Amino acid sequence: MLYIILGVIVVLAIIVALIYNGLVRAKIRVDEAWSDITVQLKRRADLIPNLVNTVKGYAKHEKKVFEQVTKARSAVVDASKAGPAETAKAENQFQSALKSLFAVAEAYPDLKANENFKHLQEELVDTEDKIQASRRFYNGSVRDLNTKIQVFPTNVFAGMLGFKQREFFEVDESERANIEKPTAVDFE
Predict the structure, then answer these.
(1) What percent of the chain has pLDDT over 70?
(2) Residue 13 falls within a domain, yes or no?
(3) Which of 71, 80, 93, 170 is deepest in the core (most CB within 10 A)?
(4) What confidence score (pLDDT) does residue 183 get?
């Protein structure tokens, strides 16, 4: 009888350890995915001052647009520390400000032909693609973690072990109708 009780305890301990390790792996994947997003947002934020300065050289009187882009850039960097919901909101405002900057650039054919401006546009498009890929990876990782937390038998132990569901990186429904997915065309 003692061997049966010890056997059951050992089996339960192994199950709990496997569940715990699986949850830890999923949590680390989510943290890594969020880190990827913040790295790409930082990369884009580093490109923006160069882009603004290049446009400023041609369109000095567009001060309001430059201020909007700079303010939106700062908001995204700050929001990335607050989590996905705040970052998504700041991202929407940033995309709008960036479109205004490119609308200004449209009025200056010499600027559009400038090699530095073209290079910055290409870098920005590449970075936007990487941000989108990072968001998809993050949301996939969140999906996996949240699924693990909700399915049996993991759900029995997840709360006791201190694991909580994470939020997806998504746009508010009210804002989704007003937002177009950025494409390479938006940056040309």
Answers:
(1) 90
(2) no
(3) 80
(4) 45
Cα radius of gyration rounded to whole Å, the chain: 23
How many structural domains compose the chain?
Answer: 1
For residue 186, which of 93, 134, 124 has the smallest C-alpha distance?
124
Neighbours of 184 (CB within 10 A): 13
Q: Which tokens go with 160? A: 């006791």
Q: How far apart are the first and last CA of the chain?
A: 76
Tokens of 157: 């132990």
Assess whether pLDDT exceeds 80 at residue 68. Answer: yes
Residue 97's domain is classified under what CATH number?
1.20.1440.20
Structural domain harbouring 139: 20-187
Instruction: State pTM to two decimals.
Output: 0.79
SS (H, E, C) the chain: CHHHHHHHHHHHHHHHHHHHHHHHHHHHHHHHHHHHHHHHHHHHHHHHHHHHHHHHCCCCCCHHHHHHHHHHHHHHHHHCCCCHHHHHHHHHHHHHHHHHHHHHHHCCHHHHHCHHHHHHHHHHHHHHHHHHHHHHHHHHHHHHHHHHHHCCCHHHHHCCCCCCCCCCCCCCHHHHCCCCCCCHHHHC
